[in-house]
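note to self — DONT lose this again. spent like an hour looking for the file last time. sequence + predicted structure for the chain T wanted, 121 res
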Amino acid sequence: MRPRRQGRALLCGPSTSPLGATLGNRSVGLLIFAVLVIAFIYDRLIGIRALGLAETLVGAYWLKIGRIPYGWRGRAAAGFVTGWAAVAVALAAIGLGVLFLTEPRLIDTFMVAPNNRWRGP
């Protein structure tokens, strides 16, 4: 059986991702990034909510695949967080995403407050 051919990376040669980051996957990532940038340009609170939605979806994806890759971008993953640690990180990502979705004004206070100090509601 021949090994599966790796996809071409969008800007820098063949993909080395063990999950097979093909041109289509990279294009989707760039599209999501563009949507987030446009949302932040349109309105900060809408951008924060969009970022929360993206973070929630990433956490759900990590729960689905059961492992979280780590390492340098553009190279093969150095390893994977698996087991209970992967579940904990994925649930933390989902929790952070839900916080961004439900309380964007609180997050906005942290982002734009002078000296980044929160002064309460």
